[in-house]
Amino acid sequence: MQIVRTIAELRAARRALGELAFVPTMGNLHAGHVSLVRLARSHAKHVAASIFVNRLQFAPSEDFDSYPRTFEADCAKLRAEGVELLFAPDERVLYPQPQAYIVEPPPIASELEGAFRPRFFHGVATVVLKLFNCVQPEFAVFGKKDYQQLMIVRNMVAQLDLPLAVVPGDTVREADGLAMSSRNTYLSAAERAEAPRLHAELRAISDAVRGGRADYEALGEQALGRLREAGWKPDYVSVRRRADLAAAGAGDAELVVLAAAKIGATRLIDNLEIAPPA
Q1: Cβ atoms 235, 260 nearer than 8 A
Q2: How far apart are CA 81 and CA 240, in angstroms?
Q3: Which position among 30, 33, 43, 46 bears the catalytic label?
Q4: Kindly report the CA angle at 263 between 37 and 61, in degrees rounded to 5?
Q5: Domain extents for the chain?
Q6: Which residue among 80, 83, 161, 275 sits deepest, i.e. has the most Cβ atoms within 10 Å of its Cβ?
Q7: Cα 50 vs. chain centroid, distance in angstroms?
Q8: How many CB atoms lie within 10 A of CB 28?
Q9: Is 92 exposed, middle or buried (0-12, 13-18, 19+ CB in 10 A)?
Q10: What is the pLDDT of residue 278?
Q11: Catalytic site residue 199?
């Protein structure tokens, strides 16, 4: 695996490769990231990845400085999966000057995650567009665990006519249902034992909708109440349309339920696509 640190090195290495699938990451890789690499391999002969912890998407009060950084272990995982090219720039490479040009995402970026992490998706969209311009892949793979991010990136690619396809990867879970996440390492033993409750609440809502309930707001409020009773600090539990994450209404068939909540000091997010009733 070739590791490149500058955009000039990246572009020179990219020219030597043919059709390319790209997996952007912030490092601290786990089995969920590995599944995205394998999905990328199924779409193109060559696979590239990036590791970059993007300051633009962290608020001053968030965990940018303490975000887990495990570069050598990450490289070992990527090599084992046959990744040919890793772009691992530092901030001075991607942001040699203060980033004055920022991608303005649509209004949905101010809801759900955006309501609790203001301008988070401005930072995400900006760095993703920069990475796409640097790597110039034919395919880019993003996990469904960050469902709102996936939707915003996919629609950005479509509206800006970028010459690549966004490929969604299914969420990889632990045996007890907890979605794999780099932030799971922050959980204490007791918090880790409690953490699967978030996914269980999503499953309960999915079952209720499939059973005929369409009072989506009430379902979300009831789940919020149960999480609070169990000691969580939930931000949202919401049933939305998959295509644009607008509030779900009567007649919408393709739905997803999304949630974010803190357990202790750790904020977890999850979602579950709701299959239409049989």
Answers
A1: yes
A2: 35
A3: 33
A4: 80
A5: 2-169, 182-272
A6: 83
A7: 14
A8: 19
A9: exposed
A10: 62
A11: no
Domains 2-169 and 182-272 alike in fold:
no
153-170 pLDDT per residue, tens = 999 999 999 999 999 999
Superfamily of domain 2-169: HUPs (3.40.50.620)
pLDDT band of residue 253 (cuts 50, 70, 90) is confident
**DSSP state at residue 6:** S
Residue 237 and residue 117: Cα distance in Å, rounded?
16
CB-based burial label for 110 (10 Å; 0-12, 13-18, 19+): middle
DSSP code string of 181-236:
-GGGGG--HHHHHHTTHHHHHHHHHHHHHHTT---HHHHHHHHHHHHHHTT-EEEE
Q: Which amino acid is at 244?
A: D
| pLDDT band at residue 249 using 50, 70 and 90 as cut-offs | confident
Closest CA to 238 of 269, 217, 207, 215: 217
Helix, coil or strand: residue 30: coil
